[in-house]
Design a protein that fits this description.
The protein is mainly β. It has strands at 5-6, 14-17, 45-47, 56-59, 62-67, 76-77, 82-83. The chain is globular and about 40 Å long. The N and C termini lie far apart (41 Å).
Length: 86
């Protein structure tokens, strides 16, 4: 199956969707089995591991914010569940 996400950094805890991913579809390209918990729009982030509340969200090896609440693997990661670092 062709990858539908990309992960750049070895410390990344999110992947970027290459195309839309429907709820329940497999996340392909992370080297293990995972399914999307919700719809993931193209170019948006999906958690590939659990991200605890107030933990850094890492994309392309860089922190892009903090989790507002616990984010489960397969969850869409966007402004509804991440916040800026103070």
């Amino acid at each position: 199956m062709k990858p539908n996400v990309i992960v750049i950094g070895p410390t990344d805890n999110v992947a970027v969707a290459l195309n839309e991913i429907k709820a329940g579809e497999p996340i392909v390209g992370i080297g293990r089995e995972l399914r999307a918990n919700t719809f993931i729009p193209p170019s948006h982030k999906v958690a590939i591991v659990e991200i605890p509340e107030n933990s850094r969200v890492i994309k392309y090896g860089e922190s892009i914010g903090l989790a507002k609440q616990r984010i489960k693997p397969g969850d869409w990661v966007h402004t509804h569940n991440i916040k800026g670092e103070d």
